[in-house]
Design goal:
Blueprint: H1 2-39, H2 49-64, H3 68-81, H4 85-101, E1 112-117, E2 123-128, H5 135-140, E3 146-152, E4 159-165, E5 169-171, H6 176-184
Helix pairs in contact: 1-2
């Protein structure tokens, strides 16, 4: 009885939470769109009209950002706001996360999964996020080809970045997404096969 209940919970809960999250996002954007329509004296014609309006405005913004004067103006406003330390910290973090999510699948991915040997003889899974470290760090380090390696912490989006010599890295033929899932869940979550079964 208990085992069956847990098995049902483990299968239903992720789907239910995912659907609830996407529905909440849809409802929030729909309400925002309805608010914008009401400010110009228009009524929402159907459920989802506000959501479609927000999507359309975001699409138009994407088109505008392909025009050089708009990009220059936006960059200027961004530079002015970045003078405020609190705004710089919050905005910079959100922008970095958005940039990480906006990866072009047609371009080669820079993220390489690696193993790094520890002092006790064990190995830690890490990720090369970029091939070059900042010059001030390279100037302060001893000679060698140093690479920034991210060590993700289990059950957290946070991680620790270490500089490791390339010669001390073991390259692993493992996708960034699967290796990240392994690190985030401490190996509990495993990729599903084509039939959707867990290995």
């Amino acid at each position: 009885m208990k085992r069956t209940l847990i098995r049902g919970l483990l299968n239903v809960l992720p789907m239910a939470l995912s659907l609830w999250l996407f529905w909440s996002l849809f409802a929030s954007l729909d309400e925002l769109g309805k608010l914008m329509l009401s400010t110009v004296g228009q009524q929402s014609l159907f459920t989802g009209a506000g959501f479609l309006l927000v999507v359309m405005l975001v699409f138009i913004a994407g088109l505008l950002f392909s025009v050089s004067p708009i990009v220059w103006l936006w960059n200027w406003v961004e530079r002015q706001l970045m003078r405020f330390p609190l705004f710089k910290s919050v905005y910079g973090s959100i922008r970095d996360i958005a940039s990480l999510m906006n990866r072009d699948p047609s371009k080669p991915k820079n993220q390489q999964t690696v193993l790094v040997k520890q002092a006790n003889g064990g190995y830690v899974v890490g990720f090369i996020m970029t091939e070059t470290a900042p010059q001030p760090l390279l100037d302060a380090l001893p000679e060698g080809e140093w690479v920034p390696v991210l060590f993700q912490l289990s059950y957290q989006m946070a991680g620790v970045t270490s500089l490791v010599k390339r010669e001390d890295l073991i390259m692993v033929d493992w996708s960034f997404e699967e290796a990240m899932r392994f690190n985030l869940t401490a190996g509990i979550s495993k990729p599903a096969d084509e039939n959707g079964e867990q290995h």
